[in-house]
Task: structure prediction
Amino acid sequence: MRSLILGGARSGKSALAERIATETGREVVYIATAQGGDGEMRERIAHHRSQRPSHWRCVEEPVALATTLRGHAGDGRCVLVDCLTLWLTNLLADPDAARFEHERVALLDVLPDLRGDIVLVSNEVGLGVVPMGALTRRFVDEAGRLHQALARRCDRVLFVAAGLPLALKGTYE
Result:
């Protein structure tokens, strides 16, 4: 099962993803894409860590997501990626401009071939006004394109608001 979970900040998307991973009954590998660049972000990361079950394996990978997924996905395992928005930010900030397209294509190519359950979490950022800056507009555009491409490859797409999931594709019960 491939699941994409979208929602705004503090919508409950990560909590839902963690519940789905737990409900699979499989071994869970949590791939974290965040980087603790400042104190506030380090606090957010610490909070997320404290909320996860201690028996879950955590892999921190800010950029090479396709390679990491290929290395950790497998029968009897659920891989949860939180979150694609931070991964996208890391790639857009990379001085090697070609790396973004390489990693994006690699993720889209590897996803259909992965074994086990895959749960992807990302922020829906395209519901507001058009941002003023060029980089911010590119980020919103690239996130939207990525979400559309992933939604085509996933069995289930859920949108979360106020902690409530809405099934856009597939079902959630």
Notes: Residues 2-169 form a domain with the Rossmann fold fold (CATH 3.40.50.300).
